[in-house]
């Protein structure tokens, strides 16, 4: 019943040593990377999102910047299509997080799909739309320099609604058959926008695919001087169609003497693909090869970067894939796949940065074996010895947090006589993506050990089930049914629910004594009847019938939306039976209903606990890595001259203290900042080789750690990060111990709140508030870690669930309040944590939590569809922690 293999076997051949291509006789499938064939500057355009940002903080700016999000398509400001995602509210935080352009779907000012534009006939409807366009453009013009990052999208899939057939169409005639009305409307709207905003960029026609009729649209647009500034369409098809469509469109441009225009394929991918690194990397390779922008499709909830973000500040495997993609630089090089342009096979993209003397490749989509071959490795850049780091980016589910990519192998390799290096990848997982970083290796230090020394996957459908209620569900998403969600092994198991006596037993076999990480991949649909009563479904874990643990399984916005619940188990070498049960004689009974996908077991006892982040692999600004220092970690170092910086994207499993060790070779000093906050610590570095150890508060999920040279030129080797406790001690304040006023009250209905009590009904006016008095030992910056729940959901018009991000207006000591958004936790009895930095004075401080319904952009109207909540989330407790130690 086991699937997967020991981590040390995944790349056994690589660990033994890469070989030259000519030394092999019988090759498995081969991904060929030709470093001598330049295919253009790295673009990064696949990192785009439709409705992926809800508002400032959902998701966090860390997630946006760390994903290198380039474009966002979103609704018109105050549009009633979905909660949040208002164009002008997401514009500043997106641009400030290094985003490029926000594409405004101007049609999303209307409710429903097809769009419900009012009017007795086509001309009346178009007149109403033009009034709304005028208002939208005037609002954009108030945004100062941010308006330069706006692209207007006047129509969306016009062939399916406004200029298609049906009760909400212009004249009940599809423009694909008779285009005159759409063409005339395009011309009117184009000139209207340009008259109000002469420098505006306008995108279109934004069809659901690249119809052949779009060629006629181009001819009309050229003849009437209304050619879009950006060409847009959707590819809800395949990566192969991306390449084919872009090539077809470019041929039309050449025929007509247009462009070349920028292209944004502003919807791509299906449920089966999204969240799965091994699937999405196939799309990324096609999009990057085509040098266009593209946005992940919006099938589910907004504000989670299209199933990349978890909670407010955590990333899943897909987020880490885009983080790896965004770290690429220089120029792309030719990649030849074993089955070129064929989906569900091994595909990839690779770059060469001559300044960094570094090549990166990301690839995936295949289970089993393959060779990754780097050809024409330039000895002037790399020498005759290279250093190869190989990482895996696993699938962790749509709502499952992921740590940084797993290091599978790290070592030196001699370049073959033919100028090539072959990396034998063995036992790959088609749901994972993989990254290889190639650098000069002559001075590289000792190889780093793998992140995990052993791991296996056990599929639930192969486990033994006893008792009542069993169901084997599936197949779920497949290449033939891409509307369904991906599932490990394509099947899952149900039966652990209220009233069941079911037991799901996994027989495991482990290689040695140790403490093993255990991840239960599971799902409960938050709107399902049995789940609504309690929220998270609880089940009971035992090992060989002993050591019971109660686990709360993750909720999702639909069935088959996977997350994972994590724990540890102590195992001796040999066979064991791990059970998940709906009843336990010591702990109680299950409430709810859950499905189980798989168990993952992994052993880390033999691995150094701190996570290692090499400076030469981080994002550098104003400097370049060097590869001449012997005895360092990894292949090289980064010198930080005055003002030069290196940024690391560091994972923390939870909010709280971490020990960050900065290994350096001396040469000067550097400052250190975490999530934009300068650490309260002495500068790191020195006159000679050493390590500076600092205690820092890290937010759960993704943290941005930046070191900036301040004097001399400190040479940075790496960061080592480990969760610790004892220095930055949190002080916890239960919400019910504060002061509640007005309608705000203490509730005992949220049983998973600490102590069974929390404060609810904050908001709908400032009189209904929570006030907490907290104490700070020293003045300065602190983290407020708010434990909260929020399950408000607006009425939806179609397939997207529409959860609402509630907000708090947080005031410290009577100062102007700061608005904080809280994403859905899927149930009011499901509590998450969100940390907010604040400045506290020494001694007593007063925190005030209020909320009220937010008006529309102009401040005089309100949403009519319950999409802007007047309430704050339920607040359980607040922890106060210094951001850093002195």
TrEMBL record:
Coiled coil: none annotated. It comes from the Bacteria. Keywords: Signal. Residues 1-23 form the signal peptide. CDD domains: CBM35_galactosidase-like. Residues 456-602, 731-881 form the CBM6 domain. This is CBM6 domain-containing protein.
């Amino acid at each position: 019943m086991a699937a997967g293999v020991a981590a040390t076997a995944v790349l056994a051949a690589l660990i033994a040593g890469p070989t030259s291509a000519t030394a092999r006789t019988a090759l498995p499938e081969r991904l060929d990377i030709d470093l001598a064939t330049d295919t253009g500057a790295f673009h990064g355009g696949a990192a785009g999102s439709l409705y992926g940002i809800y508002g400032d903080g959902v998701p966090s700016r860390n997630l946006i910047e760390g994903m290198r999000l380039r474009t966002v398509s979103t609704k018109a400001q105050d549009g009633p299509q979905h909660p949040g995602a208002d164009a002008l509210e997401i514009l500043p935080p997106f641009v400030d997080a290094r985003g490029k352009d926000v594409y405004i779907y101007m049609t999303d000012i209307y409710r429903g799909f097809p769009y419900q534009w009012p009017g007795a006939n086509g001309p009346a409807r178009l007149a109403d739309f033009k009034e709304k366009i005028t208002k939208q453009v005037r609002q954009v013009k108030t945004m100062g320099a941010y308006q330069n990052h706006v692209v207007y999208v006047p129509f969306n899939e016009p062939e399916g609604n406004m200029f298609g057939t049906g009760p909400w169409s212009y004249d009940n005639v599809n423009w694909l058959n008779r285009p005159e009305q759409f063409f005339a409307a395009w011309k009117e709207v184009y000139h209207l926008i340009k008259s109000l905003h002469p420098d505006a960029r306008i995108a279109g026609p934004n069809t659901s695919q690249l119809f052949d009729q779009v060629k006629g649209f181009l001819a009309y647009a050229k003849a009437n001087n209304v050619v879009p500034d950006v060409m847009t369409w959707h590819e809800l098809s395949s990566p192969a169609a991306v390449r084919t469509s872009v090539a077809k469109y470019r041929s039309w441009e050449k025929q007509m003497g247009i462009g070349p225009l920028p292209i944004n394929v502003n919807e791509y991918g299906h449920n089966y693909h999204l969240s799965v690194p091994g699937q999405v990397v196939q799309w990324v390779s096609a999009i990057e090869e085509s040098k266009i922008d593209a946005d992940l499709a919006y099938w589910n909830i907004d504000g989670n970067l299209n199933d990349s973000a978890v909670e407010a500040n955590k990333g899943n495997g897909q987020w880490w894939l885009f983080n790896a993609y965004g770290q690429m630089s220089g120029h792309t090089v030719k990649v030849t796949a074993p089955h070129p342009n064929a989906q569900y096979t091994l595909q990839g993209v690779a770059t060469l940065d001559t300044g960094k003397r570094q090549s990166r490749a990301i690839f995936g989509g295949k289970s089993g074996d393959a060779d990754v071959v780097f050809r024409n490795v330039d000895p002037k850049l790399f020498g005759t010895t290279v250093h190869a780091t190989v990482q895996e980016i696993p699938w962790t589910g749509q709502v499952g947090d992921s740590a940084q990519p797993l290091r599978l192998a790290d070592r030196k390799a001699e370049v073959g006589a033919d100028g090539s290096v072959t990396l034998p990848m063995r036992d790959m997982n088609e749901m994972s993506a993989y990254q290889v970083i190639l650098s000069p290796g002559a001075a590289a230090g000792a190889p780093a050990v793998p992140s995990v020394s052993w791991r296996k996957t056990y599929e639930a459908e192969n486990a033994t089930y006893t008792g009542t209620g069993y169901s084997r569900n599936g197949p779920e998403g497949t290449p033939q049914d891409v509307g369904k969600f991906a599932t490990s092994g394509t099947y899952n198991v149900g039966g652990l629910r209220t009233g069941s006596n079911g037991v799901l037993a996994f027989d495991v076999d482990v290689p040695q004594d140790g403490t093993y990480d255990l991840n239960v991949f599971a799902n409960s649909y938050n709107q399902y009847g049995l789940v609504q009563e309690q929220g998270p479904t609880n089940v009971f874990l035992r090992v060989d019938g002993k050591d019971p643990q109660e686990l709360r399984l993750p909720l999702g916005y639909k069935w088959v939306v996977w997350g994972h619940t994590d724990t540890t188990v102590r195992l001796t070498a040999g066979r064991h039976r791990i059970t998940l049960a709906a009843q336990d004689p010591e702990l109680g009974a299950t409430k709810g209903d859950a499905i189980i996908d798989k168990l993952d077991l992994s052993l880390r006892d033999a691995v150094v606990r701190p996570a290692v982040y090499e400076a030469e692999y981080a994002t550098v600004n104003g400097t370049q890595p060097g590869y001449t220092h012997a005895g360092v970690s990894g292949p090289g170092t980064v010198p930080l001259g005055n003002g030069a910086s290196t940024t690391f994207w560091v994972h923390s499993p939870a909010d709280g203290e971490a020990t960050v060790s900065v290994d350096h070779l001396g040469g000067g000093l550097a400052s250190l900042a975490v999530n934009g906050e300068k650490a309260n610590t002495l500068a790191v570095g020195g006159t000679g080789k050493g390590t500076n150890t600092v205690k820092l508060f890290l937010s759960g999920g993704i943290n941005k750690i930046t070191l900036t040279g301040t004097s001399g030129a400190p040479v940075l080797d790496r960061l080592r990060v480990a969760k610790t406790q004892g220095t930055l001690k949190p002080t916890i304040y239960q919400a019910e111990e504060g002061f509640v006023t007005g309608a705000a009250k203490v509730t005992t209905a949220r049983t998973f709140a600490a102590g069974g009590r929390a404060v609810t009904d904050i908001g709908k006016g400032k009189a209904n508030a929570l006030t907490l008095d907290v104490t700070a030992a020293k003045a300065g910056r602190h983290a407020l870690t708010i434990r909260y729940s929020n399950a408000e959901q607006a009425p939806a018009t179609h397939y997207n669930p529409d959860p609402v991000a509630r907000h708090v207006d947080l005031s410290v000591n009577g100062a102007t309040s700061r608005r904080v958004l809280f994403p859905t936790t899927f149930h009011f009895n499901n509590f998450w944590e969100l940390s907010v930095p604040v400045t506290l004075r020494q001694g007593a401080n007063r925190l005030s939590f209020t909320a009220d319904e937010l008006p529309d952009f102009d401040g005089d109207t309100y949403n009519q569809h319950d999409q802007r909540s007047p309430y704050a989330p339920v607040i359980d407790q607040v922890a106060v922690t210094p951001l850093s130690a002195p």
